[in-house]
Amino acid sequence: MNTHRVLSGIRATGRLHLGNYLGAVKGFLELQDNPTYQTLYMVADVHTLTTPYHIDELRKNRREVIIDYLAAGLDPKKSILFQQAEVNEHIELAFYFSSVTTIAKMQHLPTFKDKVKQYPEHATMALLNYPILMAADILVYKASLVPVGIDQEPHLEVAREIARRMNQDYGTDFPEPQRFATKGEYVPSLSGEGKMSKSVEGSFINLTDSLDEIRKKVRSVPTATVAGGEMTGGVKTLFTFLELCSPDQVASFKNEFEERTLKFVALKDAVTDAIYTMLKPLQEKRVKLVQDQAYIDNVICEGAEKARHIARKTVNEVKEKMGLE
Fold this sequence. Notes:
Tyrosyl-Transfer RNA Synthetase; single chain; Rossmann fold; mainly alpha
């Protein structure tokens, strides 16, 4: 049986939230349990350096994301779980890739333009090179599938272009990675506008939030004064959450909405209960995990070793093909 290698990661900008879980980690779990795939899941801590950050928070968060991965069900016996900064080959390969990538191409990417608007004082070379490092993250493992959101498609196109250029110029054998779509890949913000994000205050639910915290956040989602007619952004958000967390309840609430009998507080409380029911087992597992820090250390150490073993082989091949060995 041919196995496809899969690589994905989440930035170390804070503990995982519901959007990360529904939009990424649930898809990771499905792939992990399918023998067709060899799965590698990283904490993208080096990528965190591309925008302003606090050193102490990064130190803490790069470990917290590993704990969240484990609590959510990722299994180090089935998947390679690692921190990006522990595998120097990512950064080395990114430099080799930068030699076949133009500045103009990087400057025209919509994500670069958006980040420059967001952080005008932080338009660094690291930010410009973000897609090259992402290409190296994927191609250092010769991964053919990348479970990420649709917003990452321009970056994946960069990775494909780099793979083609390296193969053409140097005779390497990189695959052209494809995006692997997952069911909950777009999880809306609680504000009713845009995607759930750690960088937007009040837009997200943490995986560690209590029932009361979830209720308070869900009840703050803006809704219309009466049901019926066209759904507002906030109402659509509530139905999206219900679809992702408790799909059996969607039809009856939609009927009430169309018949204009729906009480929004009842919908919000149903969404709250569905989210908390989903997160409670993860939270219980997390409490047990943090009591065994030696186990966490071991997972991090072994994951880095396994990832380095694959990555070193690729970098050595590239160095040889480029005339550096």
